[in-house]
Amino acid sequence: MVKNIGLVWLKDDFRVKKNLALSEATRKHKEVVAFYLFKKKKFEKQESQRWWVAKSLEEFKIKLAKYNINVEVLEIDSYKSFFELLLNKNNFSIYWNKTYEPNYLKFDNILSKKFSDHGINFKIFKGNILNEIDEITKNDGAPFKVFTPFWRHAERFYSEKIPINYISISKCSKKVSFFKNTISAVKIYPKKRWFKKFEDFWNPSEENALKHLKNFLKENIENYSDRRNYPSIIGTSRLSPFIKHGQIHVETIWEECNKLKKSGVNKFLAEIGWREFNHTLINNFPHMIKGNYSKKFDKFPWVTNDKFLSAWKKGLTGYPIVDAGMRELYSTGWMHNRVRMIVGSFLVKHLLINWIEGEKYFKNSLLDYNEANNVSGWQWVAGCGADAAPYFRIFNPILQGEKFDKDGNYVKKWVSELKNVPKKFIHKPWELKNDNILKIGSEYPYPIVLHEKARKKALAAFKKI
Ligand SMILES: Cc1cc2nc3c(=O)[nH]c(=O)nc-3n(C[C@H](O)[C@H](O)[C@H](O)COP(=O)(O)OP(=O)(O)OC[C@H]3O[C@@H](n4cnc5c(N)ncnc54)[C@H](O)[C@@H]3O)c2cc1C
């Protein structure tokens, strides 16, 4: 046991199970303080996440108190200046788990050098991923750019490697404080109160993450490959915000899945595989965080149209499946994957608006926002990513609706104006022509663009590059 205090820098790690930084600190130190750095500027464009983070901190504080560990929250202007201040202290050792975003990893290198130069004891651990991002390469050391061979290799690599011996965290001798000027987690909640509705859908905690997983594996894994396409049913795990904020480690998901011999497991783990793939992509090709992975898209003739962009964000495009998705996102901070693809395709291909606008809006609205998945998801949809959908494959929002929301239950749930529209017209209400049921144009908008016309325009724009 070391005499000084063990500090644990919490990022996306609100869990006790499989938390290497936390268990190392409690193994080595009698007194441990976990801290969270709230950088207001970062969260200005990630409003929904403020809710999840504040909730998680409140919950985690109570949980860690049982281990005599204090959770302290600090508001900072920059990570760099905060750590500069720490260099003047010498009564601590510090531990944290990696976050697999290029800026965080770069900063880990800077901190490693500074702490070493100042003789400060520190250790950085593997974060929430199956394989480290540099472990999976082609034979010649180059990164994979296509998902299927990546995952074949990554899955085998992970199952053959010696598992990490995760040690449970231990109880500290007494609860101590370390930082001055800490703030309450309550200060992190967004100012606008739209998030109150999130409470009906989510309860962020490690226990609930495991419950979600177990329920999903019991009830839904068998037909996951098919059911994952239908937004009106619970056909997917809805674990993404828990994974993003580290309430569950993907290694736990892997273990629980491998206890089962059920169909659906491979497909489900392949989705975890996409998450792994996306993390390797943004780190090997960091230019894709701010722009197109495929440079030829730099010449794409995107359109600036604030009216269309605003209609899309508000769920007022006149295409029910698109509008339902955008309203689900606003109300719950989450959107079904099939619908993410449909609304994304609509923005980029029907409205010809740069995917970056969609990425920004999702970043601000999603509880599961994650740099790797969001940037890659948008570039997959736009056709400019690695292993992306070809640009010329344009989702028809009417047919997508008719195929994946046949009875219109999803649309009716989120677009209440359409609740009396018969099934036959639910995905094309402008054809109904019955003012007693729906006054199209006043109660619900006409389509802001016509599908066929927009499709031809998108293909012509694509030909230009
Ligand atoms: C335009 C667009 C933006 C997206 N932005 C994000 C984002 O910011 N954060 C995010 O976590 N996912 C994002 N996704 C991927 C996907 O939509 C969500 O991960 C999924 O809908 C989460 O629901 P679930 O947990 O029920 O998924 P499940 O189907 O139960 O899958 C389990 C887990 O696998 C991972 N996963 C599933 N699908 C994908 C996928 N296509 N790509 C990468 N990982 C996947 C997630 O971690 C998910 O929680 C985006 C997809 C698109 C098309």
Structural write-up:
The chain has 465 residues and is α/β, with parallel strands linked by helices. The chain folds into 3 domains: 5-126, 3-Layer(aba) Sandwich (Rossmann fold); 128-165 and 194-284, Serine Threonine Protein Phosphatase 5, Tetratricopeptide repeat; 295-463, DNA Cyclobutane Dipyrimidine Photolyase, subunit A, domain 3. It contains 20 helices and 5 strands. Strands 3-2-1-4-5 form a 5-stranded parallel β-sheet, sandwiched between helices. Helix 12 packs across helix 17, helix 14 (320-332) packs across helix 15 and helix 15 (337-350) crosses helix 17. The protein is globular. The mean pLDDT is 96. Residues 228, 236-240, 243-244, 271-272, 274-275, 278, 337, 340-341, 344, 362, 366, 368-370, 373-374, 377-378, 381 line the site of flavin-adenine dinucleotide (FAD).
- The helix tally amounts to 20
CATH topological fold name of the largest domain: DNA Cyclobutane Dipyrimidine Photolyase, subunit A, domain 3
- Counting DSSP E segments of at least 2 residues, the number of strands comes to 5
Query: Average pLDDT across residues?
Result: 96
- Flag low-confidence runs: none
Strand sequence of the main sheet, in spatial order? 3-2-1-4-5
Characterize the main sheet: 5 strands, parallel
CATH classification class of the largest domain: Mainly Alpha
Question: How does the overall form come out from the CA principal axes?
Answer: globular
CATH superfamily of the largest domain: DNA Cyclobutane Dipyrimidine Photolyase, subunit A, domain 3
**What hetero molecules are bound to the protein chains?**
flavin-adenine dinucleotide
How many separate domains? 3
Q: Please indicate the percent range of residues in DSSP E strands (runs of 2 or more).
A: 5-15%
Under the CATH scheme, which architecture of the largest domain would be assigned? Orthogonal Bundle
Could you tell me how far the N terminus lies from the C terminus, measured between alpha carbons in angstroms?
63 Å
Q: What is the radius of gyration computed over CA atoms, rounded to a whole number of angstroms? A: 24 Å
Specify the helix fraction band. 40-55%
Structural class: alpha/beta
Order of helices and strands: EHEHHEHEHEHHHHHHHHHHHHHHH
